[in-house]
Amino acid sequence: MKRFFSFLALLCLFSGAGAQDKKITPQGKTPPAALQSGDKLPQTAAFKALNNGGKALHLDAFQGKLLIIDFWATSCSGCIQGMPRIDSLQKVFGHEVAIIPVTYEKAEAVTRFQASNAFLKKAGVSTFRTVVEDKVLHQLFPHRLLPHEAWISKDGVVLGFTDGTDVTAANIRKVLAGGPLPVPEKRDVLDYDKSKLLMVNGNGAPDSAFSYRSIFSGEIRGINSGLELEKDTLNHVVHVRATNVDARYLYILAFKQLRFVPRSQVDISLRPGLFCYEMTMPLAPAAMVREAVHHDLDRFLGVHAVLDSAGFRLVPLPEDDSAHEPLSL
């Protein structure tokens, strides 16, 4: 059920993933088609490998074993943290399982990494067999987040894809026993373009997937002026819409009592014109919502709104030299 009352808006808020975002798009002359679960692994040429006795690596050598292709990079902290576990699992299941690390990076870069990594130095670099300078496997198994694991059955059928943390002894045993992958399949959003706005035109996710957002613009001609405030208890969110209204009406969303202040005591000359504003946020107490709206409007208009016994006015923000400093993480 829905009911209407005074409310506010804010900004899109998302949680981040711990995995490394690494869009892999190696360029080959005739890129093979990407494989899906249930597809048969095609025959491939030999791959350049380190710590493989000076020989190239052939996937055909692992027929009859459960093959796990472990995509990694020297810049991926999750990949590096998982190396001791991968090494241990390979030793435990040596005759039944082959876990093959694969990277697109140059052999020289991987060699330098091996020489500086504490675990590999302790375990012995010769134990870390990895495919390097790969293009083909990245094209067969496209992904964005590392680590990325492709599971392939003893008879060469793609079983599915998982995160690195899903490569465990328990999961390996279940697959060796003939069962399916016992975890949800990892799916990367391969068409996400970080140079474009998130979720706009479906970039990264559908336009409706946001949890918290606010949108501002100037006047949009052809839309009626109006205010709408909605508490949606069914979906546990609050919606606020203001279309083609001046700053006074915008701030009524933050100051309920402003509607009773005589216009003669309202000074919005600092920010003339009409604005549009839309916000959706999770349900919250009215006071918290109004406070968030107040801050949101102040940030957008570059002012500090004041409502006191003298009336309502927009006060310019003080000069701040730090506003001209470069913005960086």
TrEMBL record:
Signal peptide: 1-19
One Pfam family named in its UniProt record: Redoxin
Segments forming domain Thioredoxin: 35-195
Transmembrane segments: none
SUPFAM superfamilies: Thioredoxin-like
A GO molecular function held by the record: oxidoreductase activity
PANTHER family: PROTEIN DIPZ, THIOL:DISULFIDE INTERCHANGE PROTEIN DSBE
Protein name: Thiol-disulfide isomerase/thioredoxin
Lineage: Bacteria, Pseudomonadati, Bacteroidota, Sphingobacteriia, Sphingobacteriales
